[in-house]
């Protein structure tokens, strides 16, 4: 079982994104190691359930283990190693622990708005102004080059992402076709980038010496950003601040502009699915709703 899982990984999943490949690899090496001496043909539903049970306090890990095993079994069926009916017998009705996502800390909009008034270094400004003004994902902002900035149309072109493998960076395509998009730039960002691109290198966000950014240099930059926010606004203000906080803020602000802009267009600007936007918008409506007045109004 273990050996075939590694074969499946390197044969059929090597073309997946680096992060996905490494996630599968870790799952096999750290968890399917329990099946090292188990023949694939001897695998039973009970084996899988026992493995899940031994890690039941880690819901996300269990979900990933089940996902990998199911894909491995399907592959073995296609390769003629297991009988076609094996999947139903082995992989159905596996009990998984329930996963409750941690509630994300909401950063006050006024804190995020204050970044325009704080004295950041230019490369810090570049990163923050882009994720604040365009709602880009961290990896999308880090991958931007001068060629992605169109001052004629006042838009940023998103077509790639910069991710980390260990400390080293690599460029990959967006997760889906939705990730390819053009995002309008607000006035403050246009003004900043027009000056910044005159002195920056080809890559907009780099290490201090101008070379390709690494994970450690990004971590240092983010720590510097948070320190300057705390120094300006008060100790601990940036405690729960992440790059995604700015993306959420961007989405929320656009939702307040409905019906001037549709949920479909907001999703397009974010490179995400419309369901995510509707979820955010639903929370906004819940905050504003007045059930008693609404019922009274329809009968006036």
UniProtKB/TrEMBL annotation:
Domain of life (superkingdom): Bacteria
CDD domains in alphabetical order: INT_ICEBs1_C_like
Keywords, sorted A to Z: DNA integration, DNA recombination, DNA-binding
Pfam families: Phage_int_SAM_3, Phage_integrase
Domain (Tyr recombinase) ranges: 102-296
Gene3D superfamilies recorded: 1.10.150.130, Intergrase catalytic core (1.10.443.10)
One Gene Ontology biological process: DNA recombination
GO terms, molecular function: DNA binding
Domain Core-binding (CB) stretches: 1-77
Entry function: Site-specific tyrosine recombinase, which acts by catalyzing the cutting and rejoining of the recombining DNA molecules.
Protein family membership: Belongs to the 'phage' integrase family.
Protein name per the record: Site-specific recombinase, phage integrase family
Organism: Lachnoanaerobaculum saburreum DSM 3986
């Amino acid at each position: 079982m273990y050996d075939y899982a590694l074969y499946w990984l390197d044969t059929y999943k090597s073309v997946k994104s680096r992060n996905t490949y490494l996630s599968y690899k870790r799952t096999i090496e750290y968890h399917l190691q329990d099946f090292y001496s188990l023949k694939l043909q001897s695998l039973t539903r009970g084996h899988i359930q026992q493995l899940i049970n031994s890690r039941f306090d880690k819901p996300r890990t269990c979900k990933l283990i089940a996902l990998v095993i199911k894909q491995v079994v399907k592959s073995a069926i296609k390769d003629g190693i297991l009988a076609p009916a094996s999947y139903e017998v082995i992989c159905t009705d596996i009990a998984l622990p329930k996963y409750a996502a941690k509630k994300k800390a909401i950063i006050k909009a006024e804190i995020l708005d204050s970044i325009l008034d704080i004295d950041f270094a230019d490369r810090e400004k570049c990163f923050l102004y882009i994720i604040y003004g365009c709602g880009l994902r961290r990896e999308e902002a880090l991958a931007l080059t001068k060629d992605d900035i169109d001052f004629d149309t006042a838009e940023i072109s998103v077509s790639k992402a910069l991710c980390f493998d260990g400390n080293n960076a690599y460029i990959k395509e967006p997760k889906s076709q939705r990730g390819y998009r053009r995002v309008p730039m607000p006035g403050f960002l246009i003004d900043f980038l027009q000056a910044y691109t005159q002195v920056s290198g080809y890559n907009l966000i780099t290490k201090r010496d101008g070379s390709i950014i690494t994970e450690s240099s990004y971590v240092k930059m983010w720590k510097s950003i948070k320190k300057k926010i705390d120094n300006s606004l008060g100790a601990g203000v940036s405690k729960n601040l992440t790059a995604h906080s700015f993306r959420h803020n961007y989405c929320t602000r656009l939702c307040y502009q409905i019906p001037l802009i549709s949920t479909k267009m907001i999703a397009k600007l974010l490179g995400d699915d419309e369901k995510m936007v509707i979820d955010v918008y639903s929370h906004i409506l819940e905050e504003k709703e007045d059930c008693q007045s609404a019922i009274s109004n329809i009968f006036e």
